[in-house]
Specification:
about 325 residues, alpha/beta, seven-stranded parallel beta sheet, three-stranded mixed beta sheet, about 40% helix, globular, binds nicotinamide-adenine-dinucleotide, binds uridine-diphosphate-N-acetylglucosamine
Length: about 325
């Protein structure tokens, strides 16, 4: 049985479906601080069976021990964490507490129960402002905000754990920019309040909830001056986790892998692709750069292919189409429509 922490969230809920597709059994553990039970109900609807769920906080050892008492957990996919960069600057202690302390508690309880296999959600944010692109896993690491630092600290903590005890099997997955949604339109990204990230901002503009997109800067050194990122379909990302879980038993060292497509699209490329598939006009204005943003970030995904036998398959049009289907069918996300 696989324990999926943060499994009610955006990437976790999509991963549950792909685990089930591969016949892998799982239990979700989530404190619902950034999600709701509705996402799991919909996962149940898609997979045609109940989802095992325990509500609890990764910082609470009693909550965690309950899962190990109830289920025979073989490995953990660890999504649970706070992820908003701006908020992390305002509330650094909350981020260090939730993400870093939470992961330490999780690992302690895992070790007490002799479960030592973990796949961790890291981020391309650990590459800071890369000196060049595409980005390979051996690039220098740096970060400019508390959220990014939690990812770097946790990567180091998990590496130290392996050094101290080679029974640990650790996979660090560095995600690029996940967008898109499950084909059914039943599950997708449901940010609280006004979205910070590009795709939810665009799709909420398309559905009429927001007036206009602000494009943060058009004077970057990119093909059209707007920021370039490696957008990856969340279902491709979810499939990457299945490959990681299938690989984990054979590890002899900590494995660190980029999950991206290798293709970079600008903000305006995404606006155009979204307009084409949705047949909606996205009003936008060019504004100042956002603090902390970088010009260009995209992965070299070749290591993922060689080591996990995984590569992203879904196109940018498909990502926009699926984001749009989710948003138009659920204008208010999981809240009552
Ligand atoms: P999300 O917020 O939708 O999902 C995270 C889930 O974890 C939520 O359901 C939340 O309720 C839960 N959670 C948070 N703190 C918890 C705690 N203390 N105990 C139990 N549950 C807790 O976010 P997501 O986009 O699905 O991201 C999943 C992971 O991937 C996060 O660790 C995030 O930092 C990482 N990541 C996300 C992105 C992205 O763009 N979405 C990019 C890189 C890395
Ligand atoms: C952001 C985070 C990063 C995190 C990632 C996924 C920052 C500085 N970085 O990455 O740490 O891992 O989300 O959660 O917050 N854009 C606009 N207008 C908008 C929103 C975004 O022009 O309203 C532009 C940005 O300038 C950027 C691109 O769109 O060029 C993508 O932005 P976003 O979706 O926020 O992702 P990142 O900045 O790559």
């Amino acid at each position: 049985m696989i324990l999926v922490t943060g499994g009610a969230g955006y990437i976790g809920s999509h991963t549950c479906i792909e685990l089930d597709n591969e016949g892998l059994d799982f239990v979700v553990f989530d404190n619902l601080c950034n999600s709701s039970k509705e996402s799991l109900k919909r996962v149940s609807q898609i997979i045609g069976k109940d989802v095992k769920f325990i509500e609890g906080d990764i910082r609470n050892e009693t909550d965690l021990q309950k899962i190990f008492d109830l289920y025979d957990i073989d490995s953990v996919i660890h999504f649970a964490g706070l992820k908003a960069v701006g908020e992390s600057i305002e509330k650094p202690l909350a981020y260090y507490d939730n993400n870093v302390i939470g992961t330490i508690k999780l690992c302690e309880v895992m070790a007490q129960n002799n479960c030592k296999k973990i796949v961790f959600s890291s981020s391309a944010t650990v590459y800071g402002d890369p000196h060049t692109t595409p980005i390979t896993e051996d690039f220098p690491l740096s970060t400019t905000n508390p959220y990014g630092r939690t990812k770097l600290f946790i990567e180091d903590i998990l590496k130290d754990l392996f050094t101290s005890d080679h029974e640990w099997k650790v996979i660090l997955l560095r995600y690029f920019n996940p967008i898109g949604a499950h084909k059914s339109g039943l599950i997708g990204e449901d940010p609280n309040g006004i979205p910070n990230n590009l795709m939810p901002y665009i799709s909420q503009t398309a559905v009429g909830k927001l007036e206009q997109l602000s494009v943060f800067g058009d004077d970057y050194d990119t093909h059209d001056g707007t920021g370039v990122r490696d957008y990856i379909h969340v279902v491709d990302l979810a499939e990457g986790h299945v490959k990681a879980i299938e690989k984990i038993d054979s590890l002899e060292n900590v494995l660190t892998v980029n999950l991206g497509t290798g293709k970079g699209y600008s903000v305006l490329d995404i606006v155009k692709a979204f307009e084409k598939v949705s047949e909606k006009k996205i009003p936008y204005k060019i504004t100042a750069r956002r603090n902390g943003d970088i010009a260009k970030c995209f992965a070299d995904p070749s290591y993922a292919k060689s080591v996990l036998g995984w590569e992203a398959k879904r196109s940018i049009d498909e990502m926009c189409e699926d984001s749009w289907r989710w948003q138009s069918k659920n204008p208010n996300g999981y809240k009552n429509n």
